[in-house]
Design a protein that fits this description.
This protein is an all-alpha fold and 83 residues long. It folds into two domains: 50 residues, no CATH class; 33 residues. It has three helices and no strands. The chain is globular, with a radius of gyration of 14 Å.
């Protein structure tokens, strides 16, 4: 059951990342495979840990804000690592 949740979200995020790129843009397999895997693992951990739904949303929002701030500050280094 738990692994099935991970697989479901992985394919969901994978489809989202594949179809969200621009036409003709070079395919970066690190981004298309690693980021959906990390997001699916994060949602899987949140589904395994029995916490209330509202706290899951808050954790996702806080994580997103931290990711955006990190990317804002270290964006050039992150792009250099993936590119």
């Amino acid at each position: 059951m738990g692994f099935g949740i991970f697989i479901f979200y992985f394919f969901l995020f994978l489809i989202f990342f594949v179809f969200s790129r621009k036409k003709g843009e070079k395919v970066n397999y690190k981004v298309i495979l690693i980021i959906p895997a990390l997001l699916a693992f994060f949602v899987f951990v949140l589904s395994v840990v029995k916490i209330y739904f509202i706290y899951k949303i808050l954790l996702i929002l806080i994580g997103a804000v931290l990711f955006i701030l990190t990317y804002w500050h270290w964006g050039a280094s992150i792009r250099k690592w993936f590119g």
